[in-house]
Amino acid sequence: MLERRVTDVLNHMTVSDLDHMHQISSFLLPSKALVPRPPPGSPSHLVKPTHNRFFSSKLSKMNGDTVIADVTDPTTYANYTQIASEHIDFDWSIDFESKIVHGSATHLFHVKEDGVKEVILDIMALDIQRVEVEGIVVKYEIGPKHEVMGSALHIPLSNPPKSGSKFKATIYYKTTEGCTALQWLEKEQTQGKKFPYLFSQCQPIYARSLTPVQDSPSVKITYSAKVKSVLPALLSAVRVSPPSNVVHGGKVIGKDVVAYAYEQPVPIPSYLIAIAAGNVVYRAFPPIEGKEWTSGIWAEPELIDAAYWEFSEDTARFLAKEETIVPPYRFKVYDLLVLPPSFPYGGMENACLTFLTPTLLAGDRTLVDVVVHELTHSWFGNGVTHAHATHFWLNEGWTTYMERLLLEKLHSPAERGFSFLIGSKSLADALKLYEDQPKYQRLVIEFARGEDPDDAYSTIPYEKGSNFILHLERTLGGLDVFLPYIYDYVKTFQGKSISTKQWKDHLYAFYANNPEKVKALDSVDWDAWFFGEGTSLPVKMEYDTTLAQEAYALAERWAESRSDSDLSQFKESDMNSFNSNQKVVFLERLQSLPTLPASHVTHLGKIYHLSDTPNAEIRLRFYELALADPESQTAKQFTEEALKWAVGDDGTGIIKGRMKFCRPVFRAASKVDKELAKKTFVKNKTSFHPIAQKLIEKDLGLA
Ligand code: BES
Ligand code: ZN
After folding, report:
1. Residue nearest to atom 3 of ligand 1 (CA)
2. Are residues 567 and 473 in the same domain?
3. For ligand 1, what atom is nearest to the CA of residue 392?
4. Which of 97, 108, 388, 473 lies deepest, with the highest CB count within 10 Å?
């Protein structure tokens, strides 16, 4: 029990023990960080702990209470507890021909301890050319490369600065082909097919392959950027110039170099640094009266109408609704960017500029919940940030809980229940997938140094996390009691990075004056929620199933018809009243029942248009149903079609780069026909984002 152990050890130490330990181990970190990479295939690919895991644990004042900060971030080399980056000034040029970003990053460092001899930054696949400290060229050192962590960039400080002082260091560098954060697209891979495209994905630990940085969410920085590009460039910040509505500053797209200037005045973690450049245009959403923030959408010109239609109704409305629950939106701008199809996520909450998969353009506004999710991160994640991968659930669990609360407030309580219900299926699948790695079934995961947080990525932190918070809401007596707490949680911690323990301490502190509520909190099985393994939640949760009933009933009818050869009782009109989520639930329900004959699956796919729908959420569930039993005739019949859909070899030419869609298809297909799955992937590998490539390779046993 991580939390228990850490607190137990710390509770038996004196302040000076801790300080002493802190000094010794932080001192040891730099030289010991140069640990050679273990040979590939060795039982542990992990970096051996280079320092006492408690090295940065120290007593600190928080809201008047004394709390113990947990262990430091296991995924970074940075000595951020000694020296913290506060601001970065980027000066970049994008070279689409050679597919590199080159330029410099100037950090403003804040010294936290006397006598620190070096700054350590994270880098991965970067070509470092020169490092200057306060304008003077220094001799830097680069540690060995670790597959997951990248390398430590050691910048010596010849005159160790005093605690409290500040200084600047500039790193001149180029990105390289191996930069996992960046995908460079050929013009054929875009909607317009006229210009290339570049975009980044820094979460969880890829910012280090875009820029030298203290790549930990425990460090928050402001940033400014100047980016020279022949195509419009967007960053996760507020645009300074040229104006968003003057395309490419009035210059010729694809030919003239334009300098884009951006400013991010709100401190953000490194994983929210983001860049995209391509032939994109902007359209503002109608402003909301009384709001100082603006909202709008970016997309390639060919998609801007569809993109605007899909999201213009809801985005600003939901943002405004969220402001009735939590403190006001702080980032001034909330824009959306619709990316090309290889974007590996549904959405990514980059500050000021949420990145979205184009698969959300369903033409019926049904997938807007992804936008609701991403805008909610503005508070839960971008405001109150998880300290590191162990506490990732604080970001996603809270965001998922809030996303569903907004659905209740703006639609109906039934919508909230329905969303939890859909989530429970994906939770069950994820828990099953990790049966052999029960550690990843936990909400709070203790990562070893060098362990890849992407290996643990699943819907577990989302679903277990949001159910946990829903359980707390119910245990404490419902929304009336819970809403003031939510506000106070954000108010207390926005701008900070926190651990699970800090979150829990604050929750107790909020209700401290109310013995009945404290008693309610004491009744919660905290250990089971935090560290429980296995395939079910610690508490059986009940949800509103109103919207699911019809879908369940239809699924039952199909299940009962298993041995019928005459299927004329089923009509296209059976689904007339279904929205797309109900279709999803219908297909998921069928998955949990014994496999239907191939002829039935083919028939239901056809009559309800589930096997040719452009809605990827539905199409995925259809293939999951068809491939559920790898030995079945149904699976054999649909494997090739499912793979073709995933790689865009289905006449559309559109790859399903979103990992939520392509990974399950490759995984399911490989259980039916491993060779075909591998062959299909290898042939199309470079169309996928580097992160997706890496994870699909692991899934298929190719890495
Ligand atoms: N922040 C995540 C995406 C992410 C998480 C990227 C961890 C890299 C590492 C984003 O907010 C997210 O959760 N996206 C979901 C949206 C869904 C839950 C509505 C997705 O992409 O599926
Ligand atoms: Zn999220």
Report:
1. 348
2. no
3. 7
4. 388
Alpha-carbon radius of gyration of the chain: 25
pLDDT at 11: 32
Q: Under 8 Å CB-to-CB from 569, ≥6 apart: which residues?
A: 557, 561
Q: Is 660 near ligand 1, meaning CB less than 6 Å away?
A: yes
Pair 386, 394: CB distance under 8 Å:
yes
In eight-state DSSP terms, residue 448 is P
Q: How many residues does the chain have?
A: 703
Whether residue 402 has its Cβ less than 6 Å from ligand 1: no
Domain assignment of residue 405, given as a range: 388-531
Distance 344 CA to ligand 1 centre (A): 9
Q: Does any domain span residue 109? A: no
Longest Cα–Cα distance in the chain:
85
pLDDT surpasses 80 at 31: no
Q: How confident is the model at residue 595 (pLDDT cuts 50, 70, 90)?
A: confident
Atom of ligand 1 at shortest range from CA of 459: 18
Q: Is the CB of 349 under 6 A from ligand 1?
A: yes
In this predicted structure, the answer to whether residue 338 has a pLDDT above a threshold of 70 is: yes
Q: Which residue stretches of 344-499 are H helix?
A: 369-376, 392-410, 413-433, 460-476, 479-493
Statement: residue 65 has pLDDT above 60: no
- What's residue 703's pLDDT? 87
Q: Which carries the bigger pLDDT value, residue 444 or residue 48?
A: 444
Residues 569 and 526 reside in one and the same domain? no
CATH of the domain at 578: 1.25.40.320
> What value does the mean pLDDT take over residues 520-529?
98
Distance 600 CA to ligand 1 centre (A): 35
Q: Which of 531, 561, 594 is the endpoint of a domain?
A: 531
Ligand 1 neighbourhood includes 217 CB (under 6 angstroms):
no
What is the pLDDT at residue 358? 97
Ligand 1 atom closest to the CA of 400, numbered from 1: 18
pLDDT digits (tens, 9 = 90+) for 376-429: 999 999 999 999 999 999 999 999 999 999 999 999 999 999 999 999 999 999
- What Å distances lie between residue 619 and 472, 576, 623, 696, CA to CA? 35, 18, 6, 19
Q: State yes or no: pLDDT of 357 exceeds 90.
A: yes
What CATH number corresponds to the domain at position 462?
A: 1.10.390.10
d(CA 668, CA 646): 12
Is the CB of 398 inside a 6 Å radius of any atom of ligand 1?
Answer: no
> Do 521 and 599 share a domain, yes or no?
no
Residues annotated catalytic, as ranges: 374, 462
Nearest CA to ligand 1 atom 10: 348
Indicate whether 50 pLDDT > 70: no
Q: What is the pTM of this model?
A: 0.91
- 662 annotated among ligand-binding-site residues: no
Separation of 660 CA from ligand 1 center, angstroms?
A: 10
| 463 within some domain | yes
- Beta-carbon contacts of residue 469 (< 8 Å; ≥ 6 apart): 397, 398, 401
Q: Which of 615, 568, 562 minimizes the C-alpha distance to 590? A: 562
